[in-house]
Design brief:
With 163 residues, the protein is α/β, with parallel strands linked by helices. The protein has four helices and eleven strands; from the N terminus they run βαβαβαβββαβββββ.
Length: 163
Amino acid sequence: MRLAILSDSHDNVWKLDSAMPQLAQADVILHCGDVCSPFTILRLAQGVQGKPIHLVWGNNDGDKPLLLARAAQAGNVTVHGDLAELTLDGLKVAVNHYPNIARALAESGHYDLVCYGHDHTAHEERVGRTLLLNPGEVMGLNGRSTLALFVTRSQKVAWVDLA
């Protein structure tokens, strides 16, 4: 199974559009928070042609009732709140927005993969048997827009720089 992992879109629909070819090739999309506006959820959902999207809240996700309504309207977006705990292709996966929470989850040893965002910095680290992964930012605030692709069988990460 191929996972596309992204975070911190912050309504940069141009960068999100440039990510669509990679996202559409994934089996599942994980968003680590800060989508921000309801229109961005719809754009993401439509761009991946019905592939399942799992999303957690970030600190800049504003109108949560409308975000939830747009996720329901899209039909392929599940909003998990602050923490998503998933089993994907036999791997235990946790997704949240904050680095300190992600590190604690990774250190628990209960997960194979822990994904997070918030600090806009791409990061890949083994913590015991757990892969701790920040896909960086879609937004481009710090000059580099990235996402991560993760293959469940090999547990390898490929980094994608967005134009």
